[in-house]
Design brief:
The complex is a heterodimer of chains A (139) and B (148). By secondary structure, chain A is of the alpha+beta class. Chain A has helices at residues 23-33, 38-41, 53-59, and strands at residues 13-20, 75-85, 94-107, 110-120, 126-137. In chain B, strands 1, 2, 3, 4, 5 and 6 form a six-stranded antiparallel beta sheet that branches. At the A-B interface, helix 1, helix 3 and strand 2 of A face helix 1, helix 3, helix 4 and strand 3 of B.
């Protein structure tokens, strides 16, 4: 994907992100969020600690794709998001995040597009779906 | 410990999460990328004065995802692990948050319906800055078992 972020149109697809969630990154976000619920820091029975949902939301951002590219003097703004949590993620799992532009619209003289984000776990199960309504300043 | 939503929770019930003050170190840690990455923190609208100035902002703004994360944490406390399997959240971000602001996630039950051994709840959700300004508004839906 060679386009700048503000040039995307429905049908465009970003390169996916694959990431193994390490304890350190999870705990970094827990510190940022002042959240230390035991489910995120200790094993859950036969499962490792859960990944902070704030980290899942962050990883679902369009800015996390290797394809994300802003034109000079422009910025990406998240105006709205709809998120479906479909399953937990655990520390140590490899997650795969993919993005696809599904819609475009104009509102109050601004251009927006909707980017669908899907997050899958090691087993190929979708654990999160998030629709991002994005607009751009300076574009 | 915070009260949870149970099958008996009534429409109108209101819940408040903990207040969070957006200290610069929390904003950098959230939005600066992995802390062991070269050149940390990554420069963006949330971490860097120059980037914010280029965008016409007086100061870096917190990522909306950061206070959305606080709201999701409230929903996890209300619904437990069910939230991770079937929670749905719709959010808009009408105002920005800057360093020093204190923000609190809130939820109010607006509807409930019985479904095959479960009760599904609709909530109005928001994050408010001290002074009652809403910086995030939206809705959420999740269910609990009848025996919860």
């Amino acid at each position: 994907m060679e386009k700048f972020a503000h040039e995307l149109v429905p049908g465009d697809i970003y390169d996916p992100l694959e990431i193994v969630i390490e304890t350190e990154l999870n705990q970094q976000i827990l510190f940022a969020q002042e959240t230390f619920d035991l489910r995120y820091v200790a094993d859950n029975g036969d499962r490792p600690a859960m990944v902070s949902p704030a980290l899942l939301l962050q990883l679902a951002a369009n800015t996390k794709s290797p394809s994300f590219k802003l034109a000079e003097g422009t910025g990406s703004v998240l105006a709205e998001a709809k998120t479906e949590f479909l399953g937990p993620a655990y520390v140590g799992e490899r997650l795969r995040v993919s993005w696809r532009v599904t819609d475009a619209y104009e509102k109050r003289d601004r251009q927006y597009y909707v980017m669908e984000t899907l997050m899958e776990n090691d087993d190929g199960v979708t654990i999160l779906r998030r629709d991002l309504h994005l607009t751009f300043f300076g574009a | 410990m915070m009260e949870s939503i149970t099958a008996e929770t009534e429409v109108g019930a209101e819940f408040a999460g903990p207040q969070h003050t957006f200290e610069p170190v929390r904003m950098l840690t959230f939005s600066g990328g992995p802390i062991d990455a070269p050149g940390w923190p990554a420069k963006n609208l949330h971490t860097d004065v120059e980037k914010a100035t280029e965008a016409g902002l007086p100061a870096p703004i917190a990522s909306g995802i950061q206070y959305e994360g606080h709201l999701v944490e409230l929903l996890v406390q209300l619904f437990g692990d069910a939230w991770f399997r079937e929670g749905v959240l719709q959010a808009k971000y009408p105002r920005t948050v800057v360093a020093g602001d204190t923000v609190q996630p809130m939820a109010r039950v607006t509807g409930r319906s019985a479904e095959a051994g479960r009760v599904a709840f609709d909530l109005e959700v928001w994050c408010q800055r001290a002074g009652d300004e809403k910086v995030l508004v939206g809705s959420a839906r999740c269910a609990v078992p009848v025996d919860a």
